[in-house]
Amino acid sequence: MTLLITNAKPYGEQAVDILVEDGVITEIGTDLVSDDAGVDTEVLDAGGHVLLPGLVDLHVHLREPGGEESETIETGVHAAALGGFTAVFAMPNTDPVQDTAVVVEHVRRRGAEIGLCDVHPVGAVTVGRKGTQLAELGTMANSGAQVRMFSDDGSCVNDPLIMRRALEYASALDVVIAQHAEDHRLTEGAQAHEGAVAARLGLAGWPATAEETIVFRDCALAREAGADLHVCHVSSVHTVAVLRNAKAQGIRVTAEVTPHHLLLTDGRLTGYDPVNKVNPPLRTGTDTQAMREALAEGVIDVVATDHAPHAAQYKDAEWAAARPGMLGLQTALSVVVHTMVEPGLLDWRGVARVLSEKPAEIGRLPDQGRPIAVGEPGTFCLVDPDAQWTVRGAGLASKAANTPYEGMRLPGAVVATVLRGRVTARDGKVAV
Ligand code: DOR
Ligand code: ZN
């Protein structure tokens, strides 16, 4: 299988042609066209657009098994491929929970069958994500699913002793613990970021300290265990300060921010539209600004979508009853262009770092997030940086339509995605 990509600008730099044979880049040059392309060569004219390594998402909810009314692995990876992603990490808050080898192997196998995007199941840290008894991390790590990331996402591993033990196992197994940092005692009944907007709307507050204190505690535990800790969806300016301090001490902590925490604030809550309900909650302009600066600086390492589809029956409800979560896979790149590239906080090298290279490193994926160079995997995301498009939830590939960007015009469009030499999406359509 041979793919010839013509007129592509790796990282937005010099235009080149790229030959991919059997999934690997074998030649990069100019005018590769006629000589090197055989009869069965597929040609992808990149039109002078920006070529990045395939995007890697450390945090998605694919809902299968058990939540197929909101998303399936198939609809989820369609959204991923269309969004430029070539690998995703599927969170374990499924039913049954991804806390045994059987369940994680099922998810991995289903992803491989579809073949459009590598699906890496995240194993639960505790049995049933209940927070009381460690799951068999070693069994999942050594299973066919090769689990390298564990999380109780959706819930925090709130018990410090359980978290300590999990980090000790993680250190021994060379895996990473991804913490949904939320002290549940501090967020009981919480409905919105604790601040002026929540007070005015009469919504119980989710204090930023519930995140900050868990991150502070976990950094200390990770230091002691010599383990890798990853902090999910950082949302508060105060958490950034904790991360900065921990990194300065050499603690092995990494962190992610979601596109929605880069762009959206609690100012959107005034109409009580549950499409804006998410956990952690949308916070203030001070927080979004802090997220952008921390990401530019590397205090926050990566962007991860927290793609959280919810069928209308769960989302179209009164605020308190609606489930938290937002779609993210097909809008992530555009939101990063809008919040980071347009203001000059990241260039295309930086985008490749936060959406591909660093997440692949954290998730321990040896053949993702690689440089665009001869001998490296032919795994790419092609972006038209000048395109503008209007988001319509109904037109997205996800089974659910809960996008907070409905009707918004966003810059930058993914025009093609390539996984190991195979075009998985092109011009808004998934390859079949
Ligand atoms: O908003 C959220 N939705 N936050 C989470 O932690 C879980 C997620 C979900 O599963 O819907
Ligand atoms: Zn979470």
Automatic annotation (TrEMBL):
Task: Write out the function statement from the record.
Answer: Catalyzes the reversible cyclization of carbamoyl aspartate to dihydroorotate.
Protein name, entry field: Dihydroorotase
Chain residues that bind Zn(2+) 1: 59, 61, 153, 306
The UniProt record gives the binding positions of Zn(2+) 2 as: 153, 180, 233
| Annotated PANTHER family | ALLANTOINASE
- What is catalyzed by this enzyme? (S)-dihydroorotate + H2O = N-carbamoyl-L-aspartate + H(+)
Where along the chain is the active site annotated?
A: 306
Q: Which residues cross the membrane?
A: none
Fetch the Gene3D superfamilies from UniProt.
Metal-dependent hydrolases, Urease, subunit C, domain 1
Q: Does the keyword rRNA processing apply?
A: no
Family affiliation: Belongs to the metallo-dependent hydrolases superfamily. DHOase family. Class I DHOase subfamily.
Q: Which GO terms describe its molecular function?
A: allantoinase activity; dihydroorotase activity; zinc ion binding
Q: Name one GO biological process term.
A: purine nucleobase catabolic process
Ranges for domain Dihydroorotase catalytic: 48-236
- Keywords assigned by UniProt, alphabetized: Hydrolase, Metal-binding, Pyrimidine biosynthesis, Zinc
- Annotated residues for binding of substrate: 61-63, 93, 279, 310, 324-325
Q: Which InterPro entries match?
A: DHOase, DHOase/Allantoinase_Hydrolase, DHOase_cat, Dihydroorotase_CS, Metal-dep_hydrolase_composite, Metal_Hydrolase
Q: Which cofactor does it need?
A: Zn(2+)
Q: Which gene encodes it?
A: pyrC
GO CC annotation terms, alphabetical: cytoplasm
Query: Its pathway?
Result: Pyrimidine metabolism; UMP biosynthesis via de novo pathway; (S)-dihydroorotate from bicarbonate: step 3/3
Q: Which CDD domains would you find in this protein's record?
A: DHOase_IIa
The note describing how and how many cofactors are bound reads:
Binds 2 Zn(2+) ions per subunit.
Which PROSITE patterns would you find in this protein's record? DIHYDROOROTASE_1, DIHYDROOROTASE_2
